[in-house]
Amino acid sequence: MDDCVFCKIISGEIPCAKIYEDDDVLAFLDISQTTKGHALVVSKKHYDNFLATPKEIMHKVMDVAQTIGQSQIRNLKASGVNILTNCYAAAGQTVMHFHVHVIPRYKNSDGLVIEFKENKLLGELSLPQIADSIKKNM
Ligand code: AMP
Fold this sequence. Notes:
Layout: H1 5-11, E1 18-21, E2 25-29, E3 39-43, H2 55-75, E4 80-84, E5 99-105, H3 127-135
Antiparallel strand pairs: 1-2, 2-3, 3-5, 4-5
The structure holds adenosine monophosphate.
């Protein structure tokens, strides 16, 4: 894709701090280091996001993300890792090329807050009904 920043990194047009590369996958440091070692793992072929990526390629990207997370624990002395991928702008995706964030966490010292807490604004929800909606045509 002509105007995709990750495609430009993959083609070498834009530099990156490379961590890993094979035929299908590239991993490099995120330019905005949310924590020290924040890495991105991307498919070399352009897919808009995780949901649009063929499973075989998605599995390869996740495999590299796992290895990098293990290395961050071992080599950066991280005490945890967040592995996440944003799909579509509503979920915070800003670069529309499939990528997985691998974010090392440093206990009580990295200042990053990722919280999944109950949304009180939603009121009473029927969890079985919601589960049934998601399950349809799966
Ligand atoms: P997302 O918001 O999930 O789409 O994440 C996109 C990420 O790409 C952000 O964390 C950016 O900091 C990162 N990013 C954008 N441009 C570059 C670049 N040239 N090199 C490395 N990371 C980048």
